[in-house]
Amino acid sequence: MAARIRICRQGWYYLAVVLLIFAGAVFRQVNLLLILSxxxxxxxxxxxxxxxxxxxxLGVRRLLPGQATAGETLTVAYVVSNPRKRLGAWALVCxxxxxxxxxxxxxxxxxxxxxxxxxxxxxxxVVRGALARRGLYRFGxxxxxxxxxxxxxxxxxxxxxxxxxxxxxxxGRLNPAWTARRRTALAGSHQRxxxxxxxxxxxxxxxxxRGDGLRRVAWRAAAKRGSPVVRDLExxxxxxxxxxxxxSQPGGxxxxxxxxxxxAVSFAATVAADLCRRGGGTLWLLTTDARFPPLAGATSGILxxxxxxxxxxxxxxxxxxxxxxxxxxxxSVGADCELILITTxxxxxxxxxxxxxxxxxxxxxxxxxxxxxxELSQYFSYEDDPT
Amino acid sequence: xxxxRNYRNTSATRTIRHEPIHHRRRDxxxxxxxxxxxxxxxxxxxxxxxxxxxxxxxPVHLERLLQINLATTAVLSSLLFGMGERSLAAPLxxxxxxxxxxxxxxxxxxxxxxxxxxGLGALVALxxxxxxxxxxxxxxxxxxxxxxxxxxxxxxxxxxxDDRTYGQLAMLSLLLAMVAxxxxxxxxxGALLVIYALAGLSSMVLxxxxxxxxxxxxxDSEADGRGASSPFAAARFRPSLAGSPRSAIxxxxxxxxxxxxxxxxxxxxxxxxxxxxxGYGAWRGAGGKMRSxxxxxxxxxxxxxxxxxxxxEVVLQLALLDAATRxxxxxxxxxxxRGAVLSRYDRGRWWAWTSGWGDMxxxxxxxxxxxxxxxxxxxxxxxxxxxxxLFCVWPFSLLEETSDITFDPRTQRLLRNExxxxxxxxxxxxxxxxxxxxxxxxxxxxxxSPDGRAERxxxxxxxxxxxxxxxxxxxxxxxxxxxxxAGRARLLESRLRDSGLFSYSLQGQQRNPQLDPIEDFxxxxxxxxxxxxxxxxxxxLRSQGIPCRVVVGYCSDEWNEFGKRFVVRQLxxxxxxxxxxxxxxxxxxxxxGPDHWQWANGAWxxxxxTPAAGETGSSADGFWARWNRxxxxxxxxxxxxxxxxxxxxxxxxxxxxxERWWSAxxxxxxxxxxxxxAIEAFRAxxxxxxxxxxxxxxxITVGSIWLVAGLWKRWIGRRRxxxxxxxxxxxxxxxxxxxxxxxxxxxxxxLRSSAQTQRExxxxxxxxxxxxxAAAEVRPQLSLIAEAFYRVRFGRRPLDAAELHAVELALExxxxxxxxxxxxxxxxxxxxxA
Lengths: 387, 834
Description:
heterodimer, A: 387 residues, alpha+beta, eight-stranded mixed beta sheet, five-stranded mixed beta sheet, elongated, B: 834 residues, seven-stranded antiparallel beta sheet, 25 helices, 12% strand, disordered C terminus
């Protein structure tokens, strides 16, 4: 894209002073003053020329990590290259913006100043910050501006460079009260004890796949074969869990509820991560966002990755879809599956009154967490929350 | 030491970790789910090094440079003003103030005027200046304004400075320099003005850099973390700096500044030359009005002064133009410009005595010399002087009627009116005094009354027996006839000048008070200046019955090569003698010439008995000669650049040259003639010469085609290939990254041999680095870079942004390891090539 150049406010002031002196020199025929006015006129020409020449052949690119986590430090690097052989570039301001796709009106500016990029060289600048909310962010366009050498003219080039980054939900800390609460809930629904360290009965050996935990690697068999193999176990139903995320906002999206939504998603992500880390079961993830079908799979890193990406994009639904979600869960999960409902609203059994009678028993084993209540703080907190 | 193993658990690692914190404590090195090999590598590379720009760097050095630079600029501007004021008070005061302010206010910070106090001080200074300048105008007003500017600068230098203060200081300094240009016009001033301009340029650049960096420094609240808010507040990205502000101040910037300085000089020269002048007569400085003439007077009193001081101030400049072509002429070796004619002498004093016309009533008509057809035009520019006399080469003729010039026939003086004395005055007169490139010693005698009374007065002299005796002795020795007036006059002139009996000196001499000064000069103290020599000759001539008079004016041999004119200074003031020669004794070439009618009343023979001025050593060679030449140049092309000068020295030559070039380029006849001449020359040449010329011709043709094709290809290439777009950037960086890796490894003396593939080289280099103490993580980093290279170079698959990021991080990791190895093994013997 061609460079644009404009005169700055200081440039206008300077031009006025120069014209004044020049006019005085011409009308009074003071030759030395004419020389002086020529001398102070040259910064105008130099400013225009250098700003234009500096910006004309610069290249800039953005280096973004593949993913980021909401609220945690995100490092965005910019590399400016100056292919000129002789002319260096000074005072380059690289400006970028990050826009959340679901909120295109709010753009977050990113600015970095490159004091100097030598001739034929390149320089990397880093902007650190945090994207507070999860979601898909779009970066660009990139603008590079310089007012060198005098700040009288600003030359600018725009590089479209569209690039996106998925910001995953923020992870928090599950407190010990959460484990106790789950045990209590489970005890109420079925009597199967949770035996720590037991992953079920041995089923056979198979090739190692991505997502298999190290604990399942059969080291001796792997040594004999020369390739990694894992023990395949009979699935233990006691670890099956369904995460139901209710982000319904029947009255339409409310700005004041945004923090609650983020907290709910963050809590769900933390629980999902916890379940996947423990492994040994099946995890269902259902949300009230109609765009996404239920997600299910063996708890593993891959599932967690998918779940995180899903949770990163989930949005509050305008109507009340909680009953439909529970209905969907009832149709999908087994009878001994642990159901964790995370909601931004006050949940009562009556909320799920519309669930069909055949599945009415489902609500009895439902562990419902209302993120708007004080209860959540017993189970979940952020690292930087005041204790 | 930026080692991977030391930085595994930094915050950068946590950015891509997704397990709850209480789990992380137990297993904090492993992510909860795999991110893929490449991502894992990127992550470990990301932990290598903290960016140095993570925190804002205080640009104190940059600002200090600016403060020093501004102080220098201010002192230079005050020096410029001080030169015009002829006083060192302002520069010394501002110099001391700026030195103190840089030390006490900027560096130590122990003395700072707050904004209110500084404002109050400025207000007081303004009121005082207003009080002092009431009723003043012109120079005095400007002087007071300049002093006010100095005081304001001093006050502001002791303030705590921000961008606005810096800008105001720069502006005050510029205004002071502007005022200074009205007071001084010397060449040294011009040189200092150029230095001031360069300092000002660097100040402007530094001011801009400081302002720009300040925008990117963290605010106080950001720096101490008070800017943090709730975790779900809007996203926060702090502006950052990619490097230290000091990195902007490098040799590269100094080179750029030098280029800008050169450009500024050329540009200001262009503006100066090309700006059309709207009038004649350029401003010569507020302090340069009404110079006092110290070397010229219409009354000469011998022995009046002690030592005579040579004053190099310019009185006038004389250009001689051909009357027909208006082209400039040069004459050798000098010109005599008459100012006043003194014909009455008594006791050491000469004064003007009305000539024969003065006794007549009514006023005499214009002398007939005013009516001749001039061959040469003398264009004279005379400075503003305290006297009305105008100087010119005689005889002169008026070219046009003007009310500014009058001729006083009683005293034979050309005068300008009172008003014209106050400014540079230019006048043109015709003359017939020049013949064959020299000023003739003869001038028509048309200013004496025909009845002979005036001539008789020119014979009046007091009794001076010693002088008369000497003159008679010389004439007797030469045995000249009595009717050979010119011969006798020339004899006396040469004896006075060349006999060696008399010497020239500007120093005052002891004289015998009992004698007439000229008797003393002739007989006892034979040392004196031109007035003594002229007086002695005039009185000798009169004692021998030859009518004569003393002429005072200027005699200059200072030719300004640049302006093509004679420069006449105060030190060129001179006296000589004119002897009247009757028509019958004139040389036959005058009588028989085309202008013979001019000589009907006889002629004045110019006699200059003063020994050459060169004996005094006043016009030295070497440095001062060169200095004078530069002064001439400065005066001709800078100070005196008015409309005419601009037309003659710039517009006309440029126009002529352009016309000539255009004609040479477009005139087919000229091209045809050139080609024919070349063919003729080729035919006439010998065979070896033909072969040589043909070879040169072919080489030049091929070279030109190659050059044009290269330029065309480059231009087209630039237009087609845009390295700035995303794809272009990716391609460029992808090709370049392995070269960068090789450069980095070269610093650790790991060189790729021609037999090594990139993969082998990466592996060998990794082993070598690990052997020398690098972390084992360097192996996968180098492997990643090599694989990426193969993919790009041979797979023709560009890297996407994430992969580029990974390569970038890997390169940084390798660089960190190489630096660590170099630091650890500094001084060790060179390693074997990898």
